[in-house]
Amino acid sequence: MTRVFTPFRSTGPADRGFTLIEMLVVVAIGGILAAVAAPSLLSVIESNRRVVISNMLMEDLAVARRQAIALSSSVALCGSSATTPYTCNTTVSSDSTVDWSNGWYTYIGGSAGLTPASAAAGLVLRSPQAAASGWKVDAHLGLYKYTALSPRALATGNGHFTIYRSDSSSRTAACVTVSTTGRARYSTASVASGSVSSSNDPC
Hints:
Blueprint: H1 13-16, H2 20-71, E1 75-79, E2 98-99, E3 104-108, H3 116-120, E4 124-126, E5 135-140, E6 146-149, E7 155-156, E8 159-165, E9 172-178, E10 184-190
Antiparallel strand pairs: 1-3, 1-6, 2-5, 3-4, 5-8, 6-7, 8-9, 9-10
């Protein structure tokens, strides 16, 4: 006589999978956690971006200072023109700032006289890298449109740079201050009201 064996099938919770209600509860909890964490995450991303752009500027200022001493010649930085390569942006806004958001050149010289001929002569030490989309770099350099470091490491066009989001929603900016000795210092500052802009500069 032939015996027929029927496989044992468990009907425990582990074999039933998830019910639709359980799935919806998990999705709802995940949505709530994401909504709570999103503002903090955006704040961290914004802070990191400010630091990255500031570090780029401070590194180039330090390079200019070292090269000026090594070459016994002035080395300058100027904001890149948005339209003409190897040309300084010399347009001063109504807020007495020069826009460096398109990046900045580091070159041998002591004025904002960078031209395509300067590049052909090998005077450009570093080409610009534009700031990330949606970010602004305002140069507040007094009467100057550039910063130059002398062989004695003294700065012409010293002042500060304000780095912030340009979508009119940020209240905090990064400040890179250049002293008369050519050294750069990083800090952050927040506006008392409104958002950071060229006319509402917390630095």
